[in-house]
UniProtKB/TrEMBL annotation:
It comes from the Bacteria. InterPro entries: Anti-sigma_ant, STAS_dom, STAS_dom_sf. GO terms for molecular function: anti-sigma factor antagonist activity. Belongs to the anti-sigma-factor antagonist family. It holds the Pfam family STAS. CDD domains: STAS_anti-anti-sigma_factors. It comes from Nonomuraea solani. Residues 15-112 form the STAS domain. This is Anti-sigma factor antagonist.
């Protein structure tokens, strides 16, 4: 089993989940269930992937499932600080362009706050 450490912190308008270690076939379900248990439906989630050292196809699938689940809840999943091998996996598979990815946790949190502060236009 690959080592995976997860931690969360409540933000003003969402949740920050830090992912450290490897996400692969042995623990990808753990990531999904942790985010589902920890985060409230409909709130944005920032995944801090700065400590993620490896991502295989099951880990990629877990990220895609989280992304899809959040879209169903009309919420957004933000990926932050993706480095090295995980970044390359996301780029090669084309997922990099399809997801909301930021170079830093601070940038992702700023995007969450910006989206929260944006006015909602109602049709008449």
């Amino acid at each position: 089993m690959s080592p995976l450490y997860l931690d969360s912190q409540q933000l003003i308008t969402g949740m920050l989940v830090s992912v450290v270690g490897e996400v692969d076939h042995s623990n990808a379900d753990q990531l999904e269930s942790y985010v589902s248990r920890t985060c409230r439906p409909g709130e944005p989630v920032v995944l801090d992937l700065g400590g993620l050292t490896f991502l295989d196809s099951r880990g990629l699938h877990a990220l895609l499932r989280l992304h899809a689940a959040m879209r169903q809840q009309e919420a957004t999943l933000y990926l932050a600080a993706v480095q090295d091998v995980p970044a390359r996996v996301l780029q090669i598979t084309g997922i990099w362009d399809a997801m909301n990815i930021h170079s830093s946790v601070e940038g992702a949190i700023a995007a969450v706050l910006s989206a929260f502060a944006a006015p909602v236009h109602q049709s008449r």
